[in-house]
Design a protein that fits this description.
Layout (H helix, E strand, L loop, with lengths): L1 H4 L17 H8 L6 H5 L13 H13 L18 H6 L1 H5 L4 H21 L3 E5 L5 H9 L3 E6 L2 H22 L8 E4 L4 H4 L3
Parallel strand pairs: 1-2, 2-3
């Protein structure tokens, strides 16, 4: 299924991906009005479903619904007014910025804030950083904003560096902020090999 993994960068029509879809899907789509695609892409339970979908499409829709972020916003009275742990980031920002280039610092700070703005409305508790490099963003999210962060990076050298920097920063924060229960980023060295996934 490497063609499916790559389909987000390849032209669906030029490469004729339609012919690679299951026959039941093609048969269904040929009879489908464009307006009905909205029903297919809506993952919420429906009481007014008026089209018979192949079972594999319904199963895929349920799976995607379980894996995607919730679109339901929390009531205003349940939202935090300040980022969790942000005071730690503000008070010790120089520690977080050590060995981080100025442009990168700005990106990390802005992205961390955006993460908090999104997460506080959805109730998400865990973040995954894919291609995390040396873990600069993950450290800010975990130690500075108190998020649970899992990092995936294929370069084992970068993973080792990230873990070392985690240890250095957490030690300094524990000494200066008197914090004993920091949430540490989890760093994994993983690489997806399509030949292993689908040898044929």
């Amino acid at each position: 299924y490497d063609w499916l993994i790559d389909s987000y960068v390849l032209d669906f029509y030029v490469d004729n991906h339609w012919d690679r879809l299951p026959a039941s899907w093609n048969s269904c789509f040929e009879q489908l009005e464009i307006i009905q695609l909205k029903s297919l892409l809506t993952v919420e339970a429906k009481s007014t479903e008026c089209h018979v979908w192949p079972l594999s499409i319904l199963a895929s829709r349920v799976l995607l619904g379980n894996l995607c972020l919730s679109r339901k916003l929390l009531p205003d009275d349940e939202l935090e007014t300040e980022p969790r742990g942000q005071s730690r980031f503000r008070e010790r920002q120089k520690l977080f910025n050590k060995s981080v280039k100025l442009k990168k610092r700005h990106e990390i700070e802005q992205f961390s804030r955006q993460c908090w703005e999104s997460i506080r409305k959805t109730g998400v508790e865990h973040l995954v950083d894919i291609g995390s490099g040396q873990g600069n963003l993950a450290r800010t999210l975990a130690y500075g904003f108190d998020f649970n962060v899992c990092c995936i990076e294929q370069n084992e050298g970068l993973v080792a560096t990230a873990r070392q920097k985690d240890e250095e920063l957490s030690s300094r924060l524990k000494r200066q902020c008197k914090v004993a229960d920091l949430k540490h980023p989890v760093h994994l060295s993983k690489k997806v090999n399509l030949e292993d996934v689908d040898p044929g």
